[in-house]
Amino acid sequence: MATKGELASSPRYQEILAPLDLGDELRAALIVGSKCWGFMCLHRERSSPNFTPAEAALLARLAPHLAEGLRTALLLGDSRATTPQPDGPGLVLLADDLSLVAITPAAEGWLAEVAESDWRSPLELPDEVYAVAARLLALERGGHTPSDLMPRIRLRTVSGRWLVLHASRLRAEASDRRMAVIFEEARPSEIAPLIVDAYGLTRRESEITKLVLRGLSTAEVSSQLHITPNTVRDHFKAIFDKVGVRSRRELVGQVFAQHYQPRMTTGQELDTDGWFT
Questions:
Q1: Residue of 92, 109, 144, 161 with fewest CB within 10 Å of its CB?
Q2: What's the pLDDT score for residue 198?
Q3: Domain ranges, residue 39
Q4: Do 248 and 162 fall within a single domain?
Q5: What are phi and psi of 132, to 5 degrees?
Q6: What is the pLDDT of residues 123-181, one digit of tens each?
Q7: Lowest mean per-residue pLDDT among 20-34, 154-168, 262-276
Q8: The pTM is what?
Q9: Which residues neighbour 111 within 8 Å (Cβ) at sequence distance 6 or greater?
Q10: Contact 257/245 with Cβ under 8 angstroms?
Q11: Number of folded domains that form the chain
Q12: Strand partners, 126
């Protein structure tokens, strides 16, 4: 429909789909509210019929439910055994064609934590690595300065831990263009926005939840947000319903069980800011 039947007029078709002997393509963004939790690309073989308007309408009806499933899945733990915990950040060095140049042992450890579904093949790196590297190249082509170039992506591992990957250009001779992709464990501040979105909390509910997790009382939350205690209690009721708890204590325990307890099995201790050393 987008090409009015002339698939060859699409560079995407010429460069990607045709070499794979694919024909029509149907794409969908999986959205809950204003947040996109994933996407789908459905393909037909070149010899197969095109997607019909009825099939597109069916996918449109399914998409919100698939998005809700992806959002909920972020809150589910995974108890699968993994390799020993990587020690500190890891680094993957890539050339401009995204081929692997070098990798540190810590990065190899983090890669062992990435789900198999994120790998295109055993001979390649996970899609998230290519995503941040390709974004860096796109920013450079757009004329951005080096200080603007820090593409980041959050990634959940098979053991339920959160990583942050970010890409940056190495300073070297013009003929030696290399990109560094850093793996490091996400801090609470980097996870919190995603978690509150996963629970479907509103902006105000999100603010209140973060204050409760810091240990503030109802009166202190009321004072800090300049709203009445009764309004705070009304927000508590909505938060409890969405998170599936019945009290502030259960709310804190729920977040603790999902995002702190998995790390405690490693035997690590908390540092002064409440995170693991």
A1: 144
A2: 81
A3: 22-73
A4: no
A5: -70, -35
A6: 789 889 999 999 999 888 887 665 666 888 888 888 777 889 999 988 766 667 789 99
A7: 262-276
A8: 0.64
A9: 90, 103, 125, 126, 183
A10: no
A11: 3
A12: 119
Conformational region of residue 247, where left means phi above 0, alpha means psi within -120 to 50, and beta covers everything else: beta
Per-residue pLDDT tens digits for 234-249: 999 999 998 888 888 8
* Mean pLDDT of the 251-256 span: 72
Give the span between the Cα atoms of 207 and 225, in whole angstroms.
9
Average pLDDT of every residue of the chain: 82
Return contacts of 14-18, CB within 8 angstroms, 24+ apart. 17/43, 18/46
Residue 118's identity, in one-letter code, is: D
Integer Cα distance of 153 and 86 in angstroms = 19
Mean pLDDT of 207-229: 89
- Tokens 């941040």 locate to 132
Q: At what angle do helices 203-213 and 248-259 cross, to 10 degrees?
A: 80
User: Domain with 172 in it: what CATH number?
Assistant: 3.30.450.20
Residues 33-37 have a mean pLDDT of 86
Question: What average pLDDT does range 182-194 have in this prediction?
Answer: 78
For 262-266, which contacts have Cβ atoms below 8 Å and span 24 or more sequence positions? 262/77, 262/159, 262/160, 262/161, 263/161, 266/85
End-of-domain residue from the set 169, 186, 203: 186
